Amino acid sequence: MNMQSILLVDDEPAFQRLCGNWLAGLGYLVKVAATAEQVGELVAQNNFDLVLLDLALPPSFTPEEGLALLPGLAPVPVVVMTGHADRELALRAISLGAWDFLPKPLDPDILRVVVERALTKRRLEHELAEWRARALPNDNTMGLTGNSNDLAELRSLVRRIAPTNVPVMITGPSGTGKELVARALHAHGKRAGKPFVAVHCGAIPAELFESELFGHCKGSFTGADRDRNGLIAAADGGTLFLDEVGEMPLPMQVKLLRFLQSGSFFAIGGRSEQRVDVRIVAATNRELSVMIEEKSFRDDLYYRLKGIQIRTSALADRAGDITLIAQSIAARSTPPKRLAVPALEWLVSRTWPGNVRELQHCLQTAAALAGEQTDISVEDLALACGEVPATALTEETGLLEAQVATLEKRLIVTALEDNDHNHTHAARQLGISRVGLLNKMRRHGLR
What is the pTM of this model? Predict the structure, then answer.
């Protein structure tokens, strides 16, 4: 786990020590600058996640001169601190790109909340950039990793139909990358610059489905305190991806069919018809033909949706792709990891009933267990998949200690992932103190 880094800019030594130590105690890596020159040097040498900036720095550094630093610090979020607390200065700082404004003396509780929110913003920006990079791959794999015949045929079919507007139905077992195929269709079609909106049909409660899809008007039902656009309107001009469409309630199937036939809809409580232009891509792991016979899925909706059909293969049917997929996932870890031959052999030997999704989860957990080590070991993989590492089973001494240590490490990694790597919350979940958690993380080589 990478420690998030903060640049603290203040010229008061006492404040530097107090605030710096307090932030370090929260688990952040803190560097301190006392002048504008030091700010420039440190920013050039480091990739900070957050800057805490005092607007009054020596020599004869006015708040206006402090404000002039803000554009050069972008896109890193900046929280401005100053004893010159007035509304006009706060608004000017925010208009120049500051994330927030805090008057001195600082309230520790407010500072903690502001710092956490700013760092969350920074993390989400990184994740969005990574997602965009994956959504628009610059090679000929289209984001669909592997060199099996099945995958080569799949990529060829995607290239042929991506530029069209025909509906597409993607079928195949869970975890085989149906959403990746849908994103490839969008990214390589004429709508690539427009929204890609995914609707996970099995995750939306039946009573909220219509509002989520079509939106609602203020006052249309209890709790509707404002107008709200639905997911269909959000996808206008782009692609609407209906994931696990077989889970859609029957009443909603009727309303979706009406929209597909006319291209228009009414928001709940609305009196004006809205028309949108979207391409429909649907996916399911269920046999819709059987559901039609059972009267749980409408045949007329099925014929509207199916258009061109694409089927994704189970990972067991293209085991030769496991090595490439695993290496790709490991390389995207933070920091990037490698898989030696024994680890790859271990991965290929498994059947992966959960397909690529299960493989991805295993590798992501194993990468976290590997800590600062560059290579993911077989022991990391076995532990990530819920197995006792073979090395632990063959040791003649220390068997109990080895198993306890590996279990403790796995529990810590899980707690950190569950709590978005917040040390305080993870420690609370584990029932230990925050200091105790940090000590255990150091002992297990977890950053």
Answer: 0.59
